[in-house]
Specification:
Blueprint lengths: L9 H23 L28 H15 L6 H20 L6 H9 L8 H17 L7 H12 L3 H22 L9 E5 L6 E4 L4 E5 L6 H11 L4 H13 L16 H10 L1 H4 L6 H26 L4 H11 L4 H12 L8 H15 L6 H10 L4 H4 L5
Parallel strand pairs: 1-3
Antiparallel strand pairs: 2-3
Helix pairs in contact: 1-2, 2-3, 3-4, 5-12, 7-8, 8-10, 10-15, 12-13, 12-14, 12-15, 13-14
C-alpha cells in the first residue's frame, strides 16, 4: 500500500506498535487475572496476528512507558498528515490506557479525550431536537402523522417488529445479501459466515463473536427488519467481521502496515471500527426502503442521546433516574436498551467508548458523503487497509 506521508521506517514502526499493544494486552490479562478495569475482555478483544506479530514481552508498566517514549520520538519525525495524526492519537490512547491499568484514577473527561480520542462534551439539546425534527418529517412521509413523536416512533417500531421465530430466517436472508454486496463493493469474504446466537440480560444490542462465528443478539429487545439489517451490516458484512478478514489478509501480504491488526483495540481505533459498522448499510448502497432511512435516522438520534447521557452520568454525576428520564425523552429507546446504555456507561474502562459510535459514525459518514465516484477504491483501501482515528480519517483526500 502506498501510504502517503509515511516515513521510511513506517513498516518497522507498525510492527513495533503492534507488538507493544499486544504485549500490553497480555500484561494486563496476566496482572489482572480477569478482575482489572477491562475484566476478561483485554485491551485487544480479537487479534488475528499471532503468527505475524507476536506480543512484546513486558515485565511491568514502566517498560510500557519506555516503549511509548521510543515510539513518540519516532512519530515526531513523521511529516504532517493523516499517518502522523493517527499515530499521535494512538500513542496518546495507549498512554492513557497504561495509566488506567496502573491503577490511576482518571476523570471521564480524560478518558474521552485521551483514550477514545473524542470531545468531552454532550451533543447539544438543539442538535438533538434538530435530529428529532428530521425524524418527524421522515415519519410524516411514512404515514405516521398522529400523536407525539414518542408515540409515533413506538407505533412505527411495534407495527414492524419481527416475531421471535422470524429472526433467524430473516437474519440468514439478510446476511447472504450483505455478503454478496460486500464481496462486490468492499472485499471478497470467502466462505466466512455467522450464525445467530440469542442472549438475554446483556448490556449490548448485538455483538460480533468472530472466533465463534456467531452474532450475539439481545433478545430482550424487539427488532424491525431494518434494525436487523443494520446489525448484520454492523457486526458481520461489511462491518466488524469484514474488517477483521481484510486486515488479516492485507497485513499478511504486507500491503498494509502491521498495525491494521489492531482494529479491535479498545483505543482510538474503536471509533472508526464502530463507524464502519454503523455506516454498513450505506457502504453497501443498501438503503432499499423508506424504513431503512427512518431506522438510520432513529439510530443517529439514539447514538447521540446515549453519548450525551453517558457524559451527564459519568462526567456530571447525574443520578441514574435522571439519566433514564433524559434517555426516555430524547432517545425513544426501549427500556432494556436504556438500561443497557446506563450499565455500559458505568464501566470504568469501556464506558467512555459509548461515544465512539456517534463520533465514529459521523467521521465515516462525512467522508463517505463527500466522495466522488472515482475515489471509492482509494476510500475503501484507506478505511479498511489503514488504522485511523476520527481526526486522521477526516484528512482523506486533503
Amino acid at each position: 500500500m502506498d501510504n502517503q506521508n509515511a516515513a521510511p521506517n513506517d513498516a518497522s514502526l507498525g510492527r513495533q506498535l503492534t507488538a507493544l499493544t499486544i504485549g500490553m494486552d497480555h500484561l494486563e490479562r496476566q496482572l489482572s487475572r480477569g478482575h482489572g478495569v477491562l475484566d476478561s475482555e483485554g485491551l485487544v478483544p480479537i487479534y488475528l496476528g499471532d503468527k505475524l506479530v507476536p506480543p512484546l514481552a513486558l515485565s511491568d508498566w514502566d517498560a510500557v512507558h519506555t516503549e511509548l517514549d521510543d515510539l513518540e520520538r519516532q512519530v515526531a519525525q513523521y511529516p504532517a498528515g493523516a499517518r502522523h495524526a493517527f499515530l499521535e492519537d494512538m500513542l496518546r490512547s495507549l498512554r492513557t490506557a497504561t495509566r488506567l491499568f496502573e491503577g490511576e484514577v482518571l476523570s471521564f473527561r480524560e478518558k474521552l479525550e485521551g483514550l477514545v480520542g473524542v470531545p468531552a462534551q454532550p451533543i447539544s439539546d438543539d442538535g438533538l431536537l434538530e435530529m428529532h425534527g428530521q425524524l418527524e418529517e421522515m415519519l410524516n412521509q411514512a404515514g405516521m402523522r398522529h400523536g407525539t413523536l414518542a408515540e409515533r416512533i413506538g407505533r412505527w417500531e411495534e407495527e414492524r417488529a419481527l416475531a421471535s421465530d422470524q429472526l433467524e430466517p430473516i437474519f440468514v436472508e439478510l446476511m447472504a445479501e450483505a455478503q454478496r454486496r460486500t464481496d462486490a463493493r468492499i472485499y471478497p469474504t470467502g466462505d466466512y459466515t455467522m450464525r445467530l446466537n440469542p442472549l438475554r440480560d446483556v448490556p449490548f444490542t448485538a455483538r460480533c463473536n468472530f472466533n465463534q462465528g456467531q452474532m450475539d443478539l439481545n433478545m430482550d429487545l424487539k427488532f424491525t427488519r431494518a434494525a436487523l439489517k443494520h446489525l448484520v451490516c454492523h457486526e458481520v458484512f461489511p462491518g466488524h467481521s469484514t474488517q477483521l478478514l481484510y486486515t488479516r489478509d492485507k497485513a499478511a501480504s504486507s500491503e498494509s502496515t502491521a498495525d491494521v491488526l489492531l482494529c479491535t483495540t479498545n483505543a482510538v481505533t474503536g471509533c472508526v471500527q464502530e463507524g464502519i459498522g454503523d455506516q454498513g448499510v450505506e457502504l453497501l448502497d443498501w438503503v432499499e426502503h423508506q424504513d431503512d432511512a427512518v431506522h438510520a435516522q432513529l439510530r443517529r438520534v439514539r447514538s447521540a442521546s446515549a453519548t450525551s447521557a453517558a457524559w451527564y452520568q459519568m462526567g456530571e454525576n447525574w443520578p441514574e433516574d435522571r439519566v433514564m428520564t433524559f434517555l426516555e425523552r430524547y432517545s425513544f429507546g426501549q427500556r432494556p436498551w436504556i438500561e443497557g446504555r446506563i450499565r455500559f456507561a458505568s464501566y470504568s474502562f469501556r464506558g467512555p467508548f459509548i461515544a465512539s459510535y456517534w463520533f465514529g459514525n459521523e467521521a465515516v459518514r462525512e467522508v463517505r458523503e463527500g466522495l466522488s465516484e472515482g475515489q471509492w477504491p482509494a476510500f475503501i483501501e484507506t478505511l479498511y487497509g489503514q488504522m485511523h482515528s476520527p481526526r486522521s480519517l477526516r484528512m482523506f483526500g486533503s
